[in-house]
């Protein structure tokens, strides 16, 4: 999210280019924050336009207006992209970075429409504009609460991967069992093993659409066992995140005492001496 | 909930007005609590009447009776409103406060029915009577358990907001993907991006109505990934609240005894001697 | 669960009646545990018979057999009831206790069938036999793990009540809003406010049957907000139980040191002196 | 998972047989890990083939290819099985172990197809190949994160069993009540008590397919109470796992340094001085 290369010390000057760089790539000054918020509104607006265009009735009635907005957003994003390329020092590095590609992809489709007839084919590329949403997540960087959340999720990553592997194994086996039991029944939704695994995922995550549901007695018994197991299993990822989050939050200093000797803060509440310099608290 | 202006020191006297003020606005004395409980029953009763009026069969058979009750409740609430306006010192402050407006809105519609024919149009206003339910929440103020809950929720607010923002971003992107995949299929429920986002929310929260469900193979695979991710994500708000609640509960002193020998606090509630110096507590 | 009156010290003798009392009402000796396990099997069996009788096809084919089993279980439960009344000292106290009434109600219906034709009317009473299941929960008493669970739930009781009150208020208001929005649409499931509240509960608990689902755009937006809120709210009861359970488990001694002075165990892991007698550990 | 008999000290030599044993049964050396990963891919591939064969359209078009792959996997698994039997010392012990039987069952069905016509009957046996997935779980053994998870689940086992027993009792009673209420209604899904219990499990686990849903007013009220209760109950297994996981994670030493001055342990990992006596660590 925070490309260190873009925070290079060479950008410490005061020229227009450098000031723009600070506004666009950092979010420390007031102007930079205004820029971020404006960008957030622009992105939200363009996302809304893409959404509304997909509704047949709205497209039919306000298609012209939406198209106009589409062009306004595209031009603004083009200016933003040009500015980014201009102010950044290592241009190729930005252009080929994840967000550089996202920035390009979010403006390209509208221009391509001018030349190509079936613009509908580029809907997938236009959707990439949504990826710009993620950019706003860098604002998250400056919120201490978000830091705790992100760290807890990072710490839980490998445990959640192990958990997911286990859940997938269970779902595969149970889906296959359900397929062997249910597939013989007329009009059953369990038409193949992948379909049964899809049902298994819908069930174990407690989503339960009901488009596929067991109809035989044995199928229902097995499904019941699976649901109850899933009910207990749902606790595992929660437990992982909670424990990691709890640990993460403990790191945040609770104690407000400041050492007279070295100025260190964040002592253990039971500490009698500064743990950094040995000075009596 | 607890407007400090209404607890003004000028209300320390003993006249009828002041005694009524104490009964209506505070819930410390026995009379005040009786008033609160009576109000709770009145509100529950009036809510029940509004509910039953909405059931066509009951309205057809017992419409007259419900209408009578409606008027009884309206008159009682009118008296309550008049009393509140009378006893409170800064009248305009109460009248334009949130609960002042709620109190007014909960009696106005019934009177308006006398003059206007289509009373049905005011059902929304009449519903505001339900908002009076919240007033009873001030009773919560006096329960120590509720304090812990409310504080934990307050502490979690900004973290939950960050989390919600993240969930919404994920749902927008996944909804758009599902729309591009599923919308071409005949009879698909994914008729537009907003519809697909609605489906995304129904899925990620594990509600799963089943009114919209993926029908293509790729759609089902993507939905499966989304459900499993949501399964892990559901742990996050839980983790936040648990960690904050845990922290909140720790704040409550478990044992306030202080060792005379070494001044150590935080002893086990069953301890007889200081665990740090062996001095008798 | 554990009526202290039945553990009266007068029952300390060694006669047949007293030995039987120990076997039936306590679960400390081997014979008593055998009795408890046998009772568990009997209850499970009789529950299974009631279940199978409700399945039309099985009743049609094996009705006679099930009826025979019904009588065997009834006679065995009658003997058990007679023994209980005989061995217990304060007979009226047992007979009018919760489990005394359950024991009586679980045998009465079968006898009543002899005299009354339409036995089907007593199905509700016969179901009370299921309540005997709860009696087995007294076995739980002797498992330390269950103690922790039960204590955590007891500690959470008032907080969960406050939480439930809050959830109900939210559901009432949201249900009413949904009713006003959705009820005008042809073929909507939101036919009345109580119906809308039922939908609200189905949604906020993430059950999501799909028998009632919003069809209007505003209805879907409101439902989405409600689901996301519910998603965050679901964390609250979990947080409550986790925090209480965590506290409960901490009470269980972690430290294995035993005081040389008084033999006390379960010291704080940081303790230097025995907290019971002041002896150095 | 980890049969200690297979790790017998007799296998400490360096012959081909012994080296193969180390590669197949242990996963400590690089070659052994390569073998494990290759096996994981083979198993995944064979599982995929079984899955795809179950899809009617794919079987019709690529049946020949899938059949060929089926034979390749079977031959490779046969070689693996033969090697395992050859290198292991106590052959009968391996052959009759859980994974020995799984290994045999995963190759047998394909050979049986040569002799028996209706191979479809052996689909259940062929499914056992999926059980090989579990073998890969031994890789989990070497991940410290998985250890924490597995230990937390083991520690929670008895508490979750108690919880499941309680949930089943509640579901039985509520299912029976729903049956008595709903079964008289025309077209109700509650056709028998077992069916009602199935509904109860679908509901309390918040899966909510919607294939069976209450239609009477009393049924809906009871279902609402049940859902709200289940909503609070869902917190219990989570609480159990969280608390155990938290305990498990605390066991992992954070800092093993001991103060030379006072012997105090459990210092903050960043501390430089003992927080109890001020001595340099």
What does this structure look like?
4 copies of one chain form a homotetramer. Chain A is mainly α. Chain A folds into 3 domains: 135 residues, Four Helix Bundle (Hemerythrin (Met), subunit A) (Up-down Bundle); 102 residues, Helix Hairpins (Orthogonal Bundle), CATH 1.10.287; 28 residues. Helix content of chain A is 67%, strand content 0%. In chain A, helix 2 runs antiparallel to helix 3. The longest helix of chain A has 39 residues. Chain A is flat, with a radius of gyration of 27 Å. Chains in contact: A-B, A-C, A-D, B-C, B-D, C-D.
Sheet bearing the most strands of chain A, described? none
Kindly report the greatest chain-chain contact and the residue count on each side. Answer: A-D, 58 and 66 residues
Poorly predicted tracts of residues of chain A: 1-11, 136-142
Give the SSE order of chain A as H and E letters.
HHHHHHHHHHHH
User: How many domains of chain A, as an integer?
Assistant: 3
CATH topology of the largest domain in chain A: Four Helix Bundle (Hemerythrin (Met), subunit A)
Q: What is the beta-strand fraction of chain A? A: under 5%
Shape of chain A: flat
CATH class of the largest domain in chain A: Mainly Alpha
Oligomeric form: homotetramer
Compute the separation of the termini of chain A in Å.
40 Å
From the alpha carbons, calculate the radius of gyration of chain A and give it in angstroms: 27 Å
Task: Give me the count of strands of chain A.
Answer: 0
Helical content of chain A, roughly? Answer: 55-70%
Q: Give the CATH H-level superfamily of the largest domain in chain A.
A: Voltage-gated potassium channels. Chain C
Number of helices of chain A: 12
Summarize model confidence as the mean pLDDT of chain A: 74
